[in-house]
């Protein structure tokens, strides 16, 4: 009854277990249990059925009520730092396990993190991201032997996009120059690249496994711990080195490194060393890894799936790339502004499969929010303190009032849209700090790939494109959302 009272005025859906609650996540998403994937599975009926763009999901057995909104206007209010909302610790646990950081903090603490992280994202950083992405693309084609081939079959694109985005982060965010071909680690040690992958893959396992279990002879758990220790050691070492380099610079010596972590350390040292502890720097570094790895890998993965389905969109993009950088001329950072269609196709994929699929906040005081019915009628609802509200990013991106024919893959809807309105990165003051980093990397990678290759689906015998889309382009949710294995064929292009 308390749950219902706290969400008065908003249509209520009653379920046994709250979405993402421990018990609820163990059971699959079905008509009766939201589970982990209801936002995707229910996207076309939940708001329609309740005639409202905002619905409260109230559990009667397990978990707390949560108000889900698919309205952009409501989302803007919820995400605005001027309003009485904050990120609760239990909603950021997965990221908190690596230390406090910009993502997990609120109020003045968040501003402090932002002051240290902000200066690390500059045009110079994006220039470096472009150069590294371009150079890694060529390295990948050469190391994988694609340079000598006219056709390449990729049964699972994400194997490559995972590795690609990780190496770019390693080079541009941490200043660790990993190559496509990894060097063998010393006996008993774990390679940095393997540690990165292990840490990313084991985020949830590490969160739910009690500490005492690491004393048991379970090799998988020991690997997770080793990966985490390796990464933590490298992060601390990077920070130590940067601190020394900064002191040397003040004395007129030392090299000026430009990776994100170095710039963070520099900003911290300039502010005075008490502005952020080493542990918080490590926390932020871990978060950058989390924020920038799977998000990119997922969207690239599904972008190649969509491009393989829509040949006409590929042709448009190819012409745009050729107009900016014909044939073998280098595709440079200065050309990025001419590659609108390339960027729009990445963003449109992110709309349909948004890695950051839910943004959770709790009220700290009374607030009045706008309320939209599906009929178009507008009213207001009042909420008291300690009510959990979640921006349902999947619902928002499938709301027909904001995106007509939402199931259609239509990159043109993003032509000319300003970067701050690209909702896949959230909106308002706490929108993604790495937005420009991500778009630079995305644009450079896709421009290089699509100038060289045409993309086709690898279908099963007798399978149509529609059937392929239904089978392959289905969302899965863990910490982020994306599709599974995307099987495509790259076919070398004849020049225009
Ligand atoms: C396509 C790729 C990406 C997507 C879709 C994405 C999406 C998002 C979203 C939705 C948020 C807001 C989360 C919330 O408020 O709860 C966010 C925050 C953030 N992202 Fe990204 N992100 C991407 C790539 C990156 C990259 C490459 C970096 C850095 C290298 C990055 C760094 C951050 C940071 C630092 C925040 C926290 C901002 C704050 O709380 O003030 N992201 N991102």
Task: Describe the 3D structure.
By secondary structure, this protein is of the alpha+beta class. The protein has a domain at 123-149 and 179-288. The chain has helices at residues 2-6, 22-26, 38-41, 46-50, 72-79, 93-96, 107-117, 123-143, 158-172, 192-201, 203-208, 219-250, 260-271, 278-309, 311-324, 340-352, 393-397, 435-452, 465-472, and strands spanning 12-17, 54-62, 66-69, 85-86, 151-154, 358-363, 367-372, 378-383, 388-392, 453-457, 475-477, 481-483, 488-492. It has a six-stranded mixed beta sheet with strand order 1-2-3-9-6-4. It has a three-stranded antiparallel beta sheet with strand order 5-13-10. It is globular and about 60 Å long. The termini are far apart.
Q: How do the helices and strands line up, and which of them pair or pack?
A:
Blueprint: H1 2-6, E1 12-17, H2 22-26, H3 38-41, H4 46-50, E2 54-62, E3 66-69, H5 72-79, E4 85-86, H6 93-96, H7 107-117, H8 123-143, E5 151-154, H9 158-172, H10 192-201, H11 203-208, H12 219-250, H13 260-271, H14 278-309, H15 311-324, H16 340-352, E6 358-363, E7 367-372, E8 378-383, E9 388-392, H17 393-397, H18 435-452, E10 453-457, H19 465-472, E11 475-477, E12 481-483, E13 488-492
Parallel strand pairs: 1-2, 3-9
Antiparallel strand pairs: 2-3, 4-6, 5-13, 6-9, 7-8, 10-13, 11-12
The structure holds protoporphyrin IX containing FE.
